[in-house]
Amino acid sequence: MNYIQNDSLLNLKDKVAIVTGGTVGIGYGISNRLAEAGAKVMVVSRKQEDGDAAVVELKAKGCVVSSVQGDVSKEEDVKKVVAETVKQFGGIDILVNNAGIFPMAPLAQLTSELFDNVVATNLKGVFLFVKYVSEQMILQGRGGKIINVTSIDALHPSMVGLASYDASKHGVWGFTKNVALELAKHNIWVNAVAPGGVMTRGVAEMQSGGKTVAVERNPEPPKMEVPMGRMGVPDDIGKAVLFLASDMASYMTGTQIVVDGGYLLK
Question: Which residue, 52, 131, 148, 265, has most beta carbons within 10 Å?
Fold first, then answer.
């Protein structure tokens, strides 16, 4: 087995990555870290304007990045993203399934439509991307890295009103472990990152009762009652994903890294 020098362990030069929901919040933090490490990054977003803004910002830093509009819950959109990534960058080496939604609804107000929408985005979308990207990785014959963004709610519920979200994230964690077992023979690593509370636009708007709130790309973390004393920021998750996407995690598959400032210790 080749020994990799320390200065090359986090080098993703010549690697191609797809990041779903990769234009805002945690997704942008992930896209930024992978691109800074040298990867060519395809960011996926439902809103073209979000993709355009992320591309402009990352290209200004010298990164190689492109965007494609797509709904992760729609099979044809997923196929389009995979085909476009291969067309532009020549292959796929890294997949980060980050896209997700977390509408609040206690059980008495949880409708079938809302439940189905959450599961379609958070769980079915992961299945579709893993299915079609792993097929491409196997075809290429050089292995790959798949990282699914779960949540600490995949391990322990955080609050009332997130039953559909928690169900979807438990599903992603179970799916991660099973496909890690199946894809290991193809040298495809499959792992997960479980964030705790992270200051993003979506979280800020939830905290403000649905009002539109502007949040910086890497905001100053507010205080939070966790052992580390603060809320997470997108870059905290970006660094964990970079670790799993790199040769630093060469002997890890089917595992989940919790990044929560110690929340679950409570």
Answer: 148
